[in-house]
Amino acid sequence: MGKTLFDGAFDQLDRVIVEELQVNGRISVADLARKVYLSPPAVFQRIKRLERAGMIRQYVALVNHEMAGYDLMCFIRISLQQQSLEQIQRIQAAVMASGAVLECYQTVGTFDLLLKVITADRQALQRFISEQLMTLPGIEKIETSVVLNEIKATTVVSLK
Predict the structure, then answer these.
(1) In a 3-state reduction of DSSP, which class is residue 134?
(2) pLDDT tens-digit profile of 21-52?
(3) Residue 66: what are its φ and ψ, rounded to 5°?
(4) Is 158 among the domain residues?
(5) Which pLDDT belongs to residue 144?
(6) Is 67 among the domain residues?
(7) Cα→Cα distances 12→3, 9, 16, 65, 138, Å
(8) Model pTM greater than 0.85?
């Protein structure tokens, strides 16, 4: 397992830096240094260390999917007939190649995979399911839940 804030690899200043960067990834090093009462070079070195350690994975711009033309969000659960490595790799490749899939998780329980998908409309969702998912061999069941209202969506990880 990787380093955590709990094992002493990171201190309270690192925690504050990570919390601030989660809220505002575009904050300048100088502004961040003022907030944590360190010099800009010291903050820069801490950020680089956090990146190298894998605590900070990447910086992104979060796009409003509706403004980008994707009005429909849904969750798709998939059951497989058999879970073979080859089948999982085939589905994984299809998911990775699809711009409609925002997230995909392999799960345990009734369903084997959980996908978070965005499409322009119901017709695009139907095409995605019938042309991309249903054409994959070994799929036993597909269940879709359309999102009516997004109540909470965050990328901020609570640091304990």
Answers:
(1) coil
(2) 999 999 999 999 999 999 999 999 999 999 99
(3) -70, -40
(4) no
(5) 98
(6) no
(7) 14, 10, 6, 35, 49
(8) yes
Residues 6+ apart with CB under 8 A from 153: none
pLDDT per residue over 89-110, tens digit each? 888 999 999 999 999 999 999 9
Sorted by sequence, the CB contacts under 8 Å of residue 120 that are 6+ apart come out as 69, 70, 71, 72
Q: Tell me which H or E stretch contains 116.
A: strand 113-119
Average per-residue pLDDT in the chain? 93
Could you tell me how many helices (H) and strands (E) the chain has, helices first? 5, 4
- Nearest CA to 27 out of 153, 16, 12 is that of 16
Burial of 21 (0-12, 13-18, 19+ CB in 10 A): middle
- Whether residues 29 and 49 share a domain: the answer is yes
Q: Identify the pLDDT of residue 79.
A: 94
**Structural domain span for residue 33:** 1-62
- Structure tokens that stand for 40 in this block: 């800009």
Q: Vertex 14, ends 102 and 9: CA angle to 5°?
A: 95
Q: Which structure tokens are listed for 72? A: 């429909």
